[in-house]
Amino acid sequence: MTPAIQDATGVELHLVEDDEAMRSSVSRWLTLAGFTVHTHGRATALLPSLEYGAPAVVISDISMPGMSGLELQQALLKKDADLPVILFTGHGDIDMAVRAMRAGAYDFIEKPFDAERLLETVRRACEKRRLVLENRALQMQMQEIGGLHARLVGSSPAISHLKRQVLDAASVDANVLLVGETGTGKEVIARCLHDLSPRSQAPYVALNCAAIPATLAESELFGHEPGAFTSASQRRVGSLEQATEGTLFLDEVVSMPIDVQAKLLRVIEQREFCRLGSNRVRQANFRLVAAMNIEPREAMERGLLRNDLYYRFNILEFRIPPLRERKEDIPILFTMFAEQAAENYQRDMVYPDAGTVAALMGYDWPGNVRELKNVATRFILSPPAQGEPFIPFKAAASGVERPEIGLQEQVRAFERSLIEDALRRHNGNIRAVLEDLRLPRRTLNEKMQRYGLMREAAIQP
């Protein structure tokens, strides 16, 4: 391997040549031109080191003992069809080189070659590889964004800000604290952080601390060996161990006993733990995401959360907005939940009318998105008779006062929900949306801009 300065494209060169003098000469020339060059005397030495997506260009002689350059090219293209392979060929190998070009080789250069032509060919190949990798990265990012939009539905400023936070934090292997009221979707956020992270192929383990008896909390977290306590008849693998190389989500962490919080703190700091009843030290390798439904300062003042544990949790802290702070998302969320209920229960889909939307917008939703989902399900299972108003919340029937919103706000919300729903149903196809809503293109553009709606947000991957 020859050390060199990496070129501006970030792409490295792999030179395969069995002639040592030729290999040394070409490597030196390319190195002086500013490329990172890795040299290989045999094709079989290169093949295991290059995988799909490698930032690389391969330069290979065709005629070599063992695996030929042509065989190497075919093997590499099976791994990555867009990998540029440049072939050296003698005069007698021209027909073979032409066949290689037809089979996917980037270019071939006849020996003895012109150094400047080689340099120009390599530069073009590196630039092509850079563009291919950038395009793949953008496509992956769009898939991630599309997947996130499908899970965190809505385009209000509050939810848009949260989506940006999730995308920014997903690739960062840091602890995250989620703070939000019950029903706001904290576990959905935790799952998004895991699925968009480098740990996505490893386990995602969710532990609801509020659902575990205090006496079993330590065992659930750390696991235990047989005989560790009276009822421990079998070995148990705890959540810390189950989440190895993945993500551990601790929901309602303020319900965890204070003494167990102290032991969890040590795991976070030392990155190791022992099962109950065992002295064997095990490594803790997971990303921690914790959630609570009260303000951290209040939890600490009430003695529900250790101060030092909180400071370990909140490297990144996200505030999950309650539904009353993102009311413009209610119509599209309600429609989505109604469609899901219609499919799950095999009922006809009933779309909310203007009166239903106004009723939904006029309620404060103390149960947040979870309550909205339940109401949408009830709307499908027990729809109002024709001409009857739909009462989405039981509080209205018992005479509890509910907040009112003006007619103009109701009309805007309804119009926005219609456009957003059409974009989603037609997967961002503007022509289909125009035909569905019977709107001129200019009018649709103006309304989408007014309501902050983006076509890209509606495209499902």
From TrEMBL:
4-aspartylphosphate: residues carrying this PTM: 61
Keyword Coiled coil in annotation: no
Record InterPro entries: AAA+_ATPase, AAA_lid_NorR, CheY-like_superfamily, Homeodomain-like_sf, HTH_Fis, P-loop_NTPase, Sig_transdc_resp-reg_receiver, Sigma_54_int
GO annotation (BP), single: phosphorelay signal transduction system
Residue span(s) of domain Sigma-54 factor interaction: 152-381
One of the record's GO molecular function terms: sequence-specific DNA binding
SUPFAM superfamilies, alphabetized: CheY-like, Homeodomain-like, P-loop containing nucleoside triphosphate hydrolases
Entry keyword set: ATP-binding, DNA-binding, Nucleotide-binding, Phosphoprotein, Transcription, Transcription regulation, Two-component regulatory system
Sequence ranges assigned to domain Response regulatory in this UniProt record: 12-126
Xref: PANTHER family: C4-DICARBOXYLATE TRANSPORT TRANSCRIPTIONAL REGULATORY PROTEIN DCTD, TRANSCRIPTIONAL REGULATORY PROTEIN
Protein name, UniProt field: DNA-binding response regulator
